[in-house]
Amino acid sequence: MSETTIDTNVLGDKIVRVLKTIYDPEIPVDIYELGLIYDVFVNEDYEVKILMTLTSPNCPVAETLPLEVEEKVKSINEVKDAEVEITFDPPWSQDLMSEEAKLELGML
């Protein structure tokens, strides 16, 4: 009896690569390095749920950015569906940015 197991690490890497192609329009750093992605869940049905935040609740892309994330993640062959949940708990802060992002923005 053989069962198909999801290699979540491989799929996770693919999802992260896609997330790194999405940028906050006001900051020249991708949303992953900015620390806007809090968590990525993948279930046995290859449905992805992404918990993310925005730099502020009044972010001009509050409507379009989650849709862009969903569409791009859905474009990965293995992914059946993707859903983005926006949260402001905890609120985003510059502490969540990667060293790379801080360097890019001249904060180091």
Structure notes:
It is a single chain. It is built from 3 helices and 3 strands. With 108 residues, the chain is an alpha+beta fold. A 3-stranded mixed beta sheet has the order 1-2-3, covered by helices on one side. A hairpin with a 4-residue loop joins strand 1 (37-42) and strand 2. The longest helix is centred in the first third of the chain and has 12 residues, at 8-19.
Task: Please give the structural blueprint.
Elements: H1 8-19, E1 37-42, E2 47-52, H2 64-74, E3 81-86, H3 99-104
Parallel strand pairs: 2-3
Antiparallel strand pairs: 1-2
Features:
single chain, about 110 residues, alpha+beta, 3-stranded mixed β-sheet, 3 strands, about 25% helix
* SS content category: alpha+beta
**Strand numbers in spatial order across the main sheet:** 1-2-3
User: If helices are DSSP runs of H or I spanning 4 or more residues, what is the number of helices?
Assistant: 3
**How would you sum up the global shape?**
globular
Radius of gyration, in angstroms, nearest whole number: 15 Å
Averaged pLDDT, please?
91
Strand content: 15-25%
Residues in helices, as a percent range:
25-40%
Biggest pleated sheet: 3 strands, mixed
* Unreliably modeled segments: none
Give me a quick take on this structure.
The chain is α+β, with helices and mostly antiparallel strands and 108 residues long. Helix content is 27%, strand content 17%.
